[in-house]
Design a protein that fits this description.
The chain has 291 residues and is α/β, with parallel strands linked by helices. The chain has two domains: 136 residues, Rossmann fold, CATH 3.40.50.620; 133 residues, Rossmann fold (3-Layer(aba) Sandwich). The chain contains eleven helices and ten strands. Strand 2, helix 2 and strand 3 form a beta-alpha-beta unit. The longest helix is centred in the N-terminal third of the chain and has 21 residues.
Length: 291
Amino acid sequence: MNQSTIKILVPIDFSDQSFSGLRQAKYIAQGRNVKIIALHVVRENIPPWNIFDDSEKKMYVKKIHEKLKLLSKVEKIKAEQFSTLVEFGKLCDTILSISKKIEADSIVMGTTASSNIKKKIIGSNALRVVAESDIPVITVKVGSETDNFSNLILPLDLAKETREKVPLAIRVAQLLGSTIKAVSVVSTSDERVITNLKNQMALVVEYIASREMACTGEVIQYSGKSRKQKMLNYSEKNPGMILLTTHQQPEIIGFLLGSFAADIVNAAKCPVMTIIPSGIIKYASKMPGIQ
């Protein structure tokens, strides 16, 4: 992430899940050069806003700013680390456009747990923001906020993602003071393949260590449909935050439906940072020797 002040955009609609997002942002900001920008998006075409005159709108916008500032006091966020924005427009479009306008480094959003995962993904504003954002998005379920960043869990497909994901992980771990836990969860039982993957993982660990970052690497085998559960179990044994990448495409919600990334976002009992490859490119650097 940027060497200067880190900007975190937190959408607030005064729901429990948005309070969770603010609380998680607070934990990230504590003791660090981080500024939180709380954003409330007003849908101007619905009641009561569509019947207010200009003076009434200004009065209520002022009250929203005051309510947002009150939240920061309740959460004991330092005043110099907190600012507010009130914007009119469609929720996701406005979040994405404002993140670009203020040059935010990350978006933090709370989500709710759901027993119906399919319904949750289709109806999730957070998932749409994840799908379309050019910067990292951190999602956290209500009740799963944490100030423990001991570990940054880095699931790797060693054949595809290494060059893009590892440099970002180093930046995030530097900010949070985390140990990077690189892990590859694979279903193969072919010893030659496993040996090759372990050699690849050793190169990843060597590269990260050369940047003076604490790191471990592990290749975990699984059978059947247990890949997601293996990763969730690993994250519970190594508390911190998970860093995932996914792919941006027009049918992203359909693409995510039932995918490993969406399963982890919905089921993880810890914050999950998600980024599409096009957003990682600006953070990436070359890693000689890693294919």
